[in-house]
Amino acid sequence: MTFEPAFRRVLLKLSGEALMGDLDYGTDPGRVRAVATQIAAVHAHGIEIAIVVGAGNIYRGLKGAAAGMDRATADYMGMMATVLNALTMQDALEKQDVKTRVQSAITISEVAEPYIRRRAIRHLEKGRVVIFAAGTGNPFFTTDTAAALRAVEIHAEAILMAKNGVEGVLTGDPRKDADATLIREISHMDALRRGLRVMDYTALTLCAENEMPLYVFNMNDERNIERIVSGEQVGTVVVTRDE
Fold it and tell me: pTM of the entire structure?
């Protein structure tokens, strides 16, 4: 792989479903290895990469237990699940000889550093991949919001939103609308007005306010991260425009 990177520092948002493969819930080791291989290949070219992981793959299996539970308690369970995914990704990346650090927004010092913004930036400058776990550390906020917040805090140049089997942002839900088509470019505010679920509304607003571009792409294509960081148009790009 030879290219002039379009970005020097990016934040990759990995949904839990991106680690699930074809399973109903849980983690597919083969899928995790494939994702780690993609990240390692791009990181090898000097691109600084931070990662925020979701927990949909684990939380699907907890839905029954969480039914009727207090929302804050359920959200804390989800945060703990993201720590499991972060440790899984750390192990897979280190098997690819990529130095990593996990930083958690909730205190879990035996397995992760506390989230400290300046330390995270220093790790990136030293060539380490930083994995942010436990969302924002607060209930009622999603890992999408955590991704937007961390990207702004560490001065990332873009957020890469990895989807499981979805090419990008579509005009409608393909499960309900057979005519749904891929949108190549859209503004943050237009996506909000149209109710397109690029990411949750809090996160999308934060990205709009800070002019943070989003690249929404299919993680199943093993060259998509490479294509995006080389400046190629892949999936959907969400940008800030003068409205």
Answer: 0.92
3-state helix, strand, coil in the chain (%, to 5): 40, 20, 45
- HSE at residue 242, side-chain half, CA atoms within 13 A, is 0
What token pair was written down for 179? 């005519």
How far is it, in rounded angstroms, from Cα 58 to Cα 61? Answer: 6
- Could you say which DSSP state residue 170 is in? B
- Per the CB < 8 A criterion, the answer to whether 171 and 24 are in contact is no
pLDDT tens per residue, range 195-232: 887 899 999 999 999 999 999 999 888 899 999 999 99
The structural domains of the chain, ordered by start, are 9-239 (3.40.1160.10)
Place of tokens 């494939």: 34
Nearest Cα neighbor of 2 from 46, 51, 49 is 46
* Residues 214 and 221 sit within 8 Å (Cβ to Cβ): no
The whole-angstrom separation of Cα 81 and Cα 99 is 22
